[in-house]
Give the backbone structure.
Amino acid sequence: MDPKEYALNRGVRGRGPGAGNKAELNADPRQNVLEIYNRLYDRFGPQRWWPGESPFEVLVGAILTQRTSWKNVEKALIPLRKRRLLTPGALNRIPEKELARLIRPCGFFNVKAGRLKALARFIFKRYGGSLDRMFLENEDILREQLLHIKGIGPETADSILLYAGNLPYFVVDGYTRRIFSRHRLIHETDPYHEVQNFFISRLPLKHEIFNEYHALIVKTGKVYCKTEANCEDCPLRDLMVSPLDKGRKNVSLNDGRSWPVYGNSR
């Protein structure tokens, strides 16, 4: 069963405001995150993320992609594949300076080389170099351990858990904040865990859904919801409180904060 079919069959379950009341949660389609998911899926189709040939390559990519584009990550992965360095053992053995030279195309290569070495050491120290053993760990404990590795924050840790471990952790990135704050469903400055819980509390707790949703959000951010919004043909246009156009304004909502929107509020 593909992610969309599963979601449609499962329906929405809610916690927080309107918890346990499906009719109330679905009353306003703008607040139905599953409706947004379905529209994006219909427009773009399955994204088949994460682009990686092995779970460990996904881990490496999650660090290499920090503060750079995926095109640069792909360039950095080429020499690692050629040298057969995309295993915990190989990455643990290579000198850090040599690793930094190989991943230069992704930027911040000295910093990222240190982070990759730290991750490889962690896998060996805690799990004997085995990703299978690592992902058998209690998922909340594993997440906390990953967050204690220098340079791994919530977004990187959750990317590792979701895409390499197939564990249900919703990844929150800049595209997520941009799109859903423009729809006034979150505030762009809300803490990471609050934004993450916004999605987890409104979706089936399945890694397939979280995987596909995050990939669709990234696609939407690149095609439509750029720094300057292009709402004209966006599948979410009619779900906006007001369509976005040039001319930034702040609109105060019930919680007393100012929400950035574009154009006139209708």
